[in-house]
Amino acid sequence: MDKRIEIAINELISMEIWSANFYLSLLVYFKEQDLPVLASWLDMQPHDNMERVYCMMKQVYQCGGYVRMREISWKPEKWKNLLEALDRLAEHERYMANQIAALLAFTKEVDMSIYSFCKQLYQSRVYVTDVFIELFYILAKRYSRELPYNPFRD
Fold it and tell me: What's the CATH class of domain 3-70+81-142?
């Protein structure tokens, strides 16, 4: 396995673990806000994150690489209100989508078999991310509220 790909995948493994913790903290918050549908979606995310972590670890080992996770510091976030929590969730989803896109672009240039693996692993997640963020902004427009980042602004 190309050492640069090994490092990039190990970084994404650490990000996925951090992301799982983030989703769990949002799950608790949205349950407390009595939003069961959003809480239910968030309840599935840590499972999906960890499934991807295990798949990536297995792939790294099968390709002769090493898994090296960095220490993850975690402090639960406190949100002032629902819109702030939703905005932070949208920001996190954009960040993860960008990290995945960068990994896909890099692996496509370096190793097509790893690229195919990563593309398959993240294909459905990217789709869900796009739909989820778009729904936030539809709801924000519908209720005449504006999130701090709004791609529909003029």
Answer: mainly alpha
**pLDDT, tens digit (0-9, with 9 covering 90-100), for 62-119:** 999 999 988 877 776 788 888 888 888 888 888 998 999 999 999 999 999 999 999 9
CA distance 22 to 43: 11
Domain ranges of the chain: 3-70+81-142
User: Tokens 């990994």 label which residue?
Assistant: 103
Measured CA to CA, the distance from residue 94 to residue 33 in angstroms comes to: 23
Q: Say what the pLDDT of residue 54 is.
A: 98
For residues 104 and 6, is the Cβ–Cβ distance under 8 A? no
Q: Give CA–CA dist 135/72, Å, rounded.
A: 30
